[in-house]
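Work Package 3 committed the consortium to producing structural models of liganded targets before the mid-term review. Because experimental data for this complex are still outstanding, the team generated a predictive model from sequence and the ligand definition alone, so that downstream docking and mutagenesis planning could proceed in parallel. The input record is reproduced below exactly as it was submitted to the modelling pipeline, together with the SMILES string for pyridoxal-5'-phosphate.
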Amino acid sequence: MHKLFNTYNFTNFSITKGNGSYLFDNKGKKYLDFSAGVAVNALGYNHSIINRSIKDQLKTGIMHLSGSQLHKYKTDLANILSKNSNKGDVFYSNSGAESIETAMKIARSVGSKNKKTQIISMTSSFHGRTLGALSLGHNKNYKSNIGPIPGDVIFCNFNDSKDLKKKINPKKTIAIIIEFVQGDGGVNICTKEFAKTIDDICKKFKILLIADEIQAGVGRTGKMFAYKNYSVSPDIITMAKGLGSGIPIGATIIKNTISKNFNIGFHGSTYGGGMLQTRIAYNVFNFINQKPFLTAVLEKSKILKLGLMKIKNEHEDKIKEVRILGLICGLEFHEKNYALKIFNTLMKKSLITTIVQGNTIRITPPLTVSKKEIKEGLKIIASSLSL
Ligand SMILES: Cc1ncc(COP(=O)(O)O)c(C=O)c1O
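The resulting structure, written out as tokens with the ligand in place, is given here.
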């Protein structure tokens, strides 16, 4: 019995510790974690980068500083995020949804000068659970029976250039928001052709491009930002999850052409940019942003892909599609509700995955997962499908 608000399907075991790609429960059972706290724990568990950052932070005696108080990590992290993306300015918050709210507020403010407030989002999109973020998400189940949510958002069919051209209204549309790899929607990967259409349209009509990098950013696709798999240049970038690799942090990067027009007081966040979280994120980002690390992500992705394709060939009747970019992968099944069934079987066999939309399980191991651990996970998946 517990007194937790019943909004999650809680596990029937309690976790006590973690190490590398593994979690351990209170009965000593060991789990291989191919969810990584829903694509958060980029460096897995008990990683020296995080541990050392926390120890170093303790030496300062500081737990909190106000938003206006500068410190080394606040500025250093902003500088590397900016340098490695659109050279913009950084606003810190605590979560993905908050970084989305920031992006949305900025886009609406830019548009308000010309009475343009419409934002185009994508079908199957997910951008968070606050009311503003929910308005940008496509899944109706997440936003029914909660009264009015902010409006003027329309949805374009993901990867459908024709639909986007039809839906754009240069007099109304201020921004397009996209996850270049949709996470919650079923691990749907943006095509190069669709990304080009978005880029052309944004440039032609001066529409802002918002890249939601909350799940697929920070090395997850083998590049520091998922949008870097395409020829696009986002005006606003939202980040969270892997950026803190377990410590809550959100960041919104805003191109200078936009950020220069905003004044003090436009936005704020009490805990945003704290010394602990920016220190950790700075060290995590630099650790991941190295060629050998990112090359290893792609090599491990190849092993995962080959293994899953082999399993698919052996189970054509069960697996409909394997979608993968770097270390974010979706396994879609034919039979209704099979994803839930296989998720439970995998859990019983000590492999943690996540269920997402579209009868799909999502695999997002820590980026530090070893090739041996990937093979171990593949074996568990193969044996579970044979049941
Ligand atoms: C693409 C994307 N955007 C936004 C969010 C919301 O992030 P948070 O749960 O930290 O508010 C998520 C969370 O899963 C996400 O995957």
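Reviewers should note the following from the model. Residues 49-288 form a domain with the Aspartate Aminotransferase; domain 2 fold (CATH 3.40.640.10). These observations will guide the Year 2 experiments.
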